[in-house]
Amino acid sequence: MAQTPTTAHTVKSFDSDLETIRSLISQMGGLAEAQIAGAIDALMRRDADAAMKVVAQDAAIDTLEAEVEKLAVATIALRAPLADDLREIIAGLKMSALLERIGDYAKNIAKRASTLAQAQPVQPVVIIPEMGRAAAAMVRDALDAYVDRDAELAEAVMARDAVVDDFYNSLFRSLLTYMMENPHHITPSAHLLFIAKNLERIGDHATNIAELVTFSVTGEHAAERAKADDTAFVTTPQG
Known about the structure:
Blueprint: H1 5-45, H2 48-79, H3 83-116, H4 128-148, H5 151-159, H6 161-181, H7 186-218
């Protein structure tokens, strides 16, 4: 059936709203990825000024999240979307909240990087850059899957969460041993543990975004995944 001018206008406006939501979420993903990289770079270069710039830039992600929420709510209220369209908007809303949290984790890493720049270097820190790259790549690929509506890529992102968990398990054990060997390293090592945990949570949130992509594209929820973080069961290393 041919669309009337009013119907055509409504459809065009709705498509424009969806495109704007996708664009805003993509911008959030790009900023979040850059924030992670910036925080890790500041940590490794022991650059407190660069770390504080990362902290200040978090506000841009917060602003974009507010824009997504405002537009998504208005679109639902005015266009009354159904089925696939409603599913995509709801998924977009949830993704923007997850990206805002990822930005917060990057900000927390940067804050601790600023503190660690004043402390004695800790040897296990060398694991952090690779862990950070793995987590940031998951965020990037999850957003690519969202933009391309690529459920297969989203599945691949979910599978990579175990890699970030393995980094966390390894770093947790290394830092535990490091602290036992030299109590003077406890404070900087504790900061590194929190940084590693933030990266592990970023991997979790990237996985959650990938699950939302799968739901948005297929209408089916992803199967529940087993976590590879086994640090809850770690006991004190024996000498």
